Amino acid sequence: MHAMQYEITLPADYDMGIIRKRVAEKGHLLDAHPGLGLKAYLVRERVRQGSPVNQYAPFYLWRTAEGMNGFLWGPGFHGLSADFGRPTVHHWLGAGLAHGTGAAGTKAAGAESAAGEPAEPPTTATRETVRLPESADPAEAVERALAGLPAHPGLHTAAVAVDPSRWELVRFALWHGPAPEEVPGVRYRVLHLSRPELDRLPAGRHW
Predict the structure, then answer these.
(1) Of 54, 113, 168, 182, which shows the fewest CB atoms inside 10 Å?
(2) Which of 1.10.540.10, 3.40.50.1820, 3.30.70.100, 3.40.50.2000 is the CATH number of 2-205?
(3) pTM of the model
């Protein structure tokens, strides 16, 4: 598993309706992308949930490197770069995953659940990043992060990943409804969720 995110920070007076319209029109294009576990179309908006910025910040969990490469070198990322400028893409190696309510058994937001009822997509997300000090054992830090993955009834999906070039650990979670107050990190709203191969990403440790 590979985790990936880019953050496009927009002007303070930017009309975020433009981003919502873009996602509404184009979000479905990755609903069947090969090798993609999930793409959460995330936004932050000034004065909402204490955000100081307007930002479009999609977060990805890739099942395969081929799927990730196919997106980065394909028309989707090319079009985004043409519209907003090429963003820095942050990349982490997946270390573990937890499936919560609604994470398994459906292919995309709005699909039906195994019981035949419409699956409820997540509405919020959190991302916490932690730099590991030189004195820290990275294996122990990852184990602690995995043990600390939230067991909450509102959890949709949670992942732990590491960037070993900077020794940065990220914990990402998707939530049904508001994220719990006790969960640290940056808060986002989810505009759409593409999740073609999420059910093929195994829970637990990824090594």
Answers:
(1) 182
(2) 3.30.70.100
(3) 0.91
